[in-house]
Amino acid sequence: MEGVSGYAVKSRRTTLMPAAVSKKLGIDLSSRKEGELFKWFLACLLFGKPIQQEIAERAYTRLVSAGVRNADKVLGAGWDELVRLLDEAHYVRYDFSTATKLLEVCKELKQRYGKMKKMIEQARTGSELSTRLQEFKHVGPVTARIFTRVVVPIWYGSRRSSPKPR
Length: 166
Prior knowledge:
This protein is mainly alpha-helical. The chain has helices at 18-24, 34-47, 53-65, 71-88, 95-112, 116-122, 126-134, 141-156; strands at residues 4-5, 8-10, 15-16.
């Protein structure tokens, strides 16, 4: 089975919850560090397409191993390099559109918030965070659900109504 449905990231053999996926990818969201938050956002953008989980994981790993770990690095890589990296990971069906999406979302992120952490800090609830994510061109409810499913409990706590004190 391809794609992402509800809160689970699906593949032909397994269905993993987003927290398990972030852990499998080596992303430590509990650190609440900008780099980890951006890497999870990058992974969610890749998982948001109807593509096999293994291919999305490979694309994420390829991008990160090439140093594409923040919005500036995405923008610095440019469209041709992003397409090349996605192709190397066999993310070929959506390589052109995903390269465009990554560039546009990162440009918009920098213009609106500067960093992921600032966007998360400005949102008062998980619902507001989801709304802010979906305001980005190319980010729909599936990508927002995958992202918030893991970030909201860490950032806003179990009540999900107000940010944790820093």
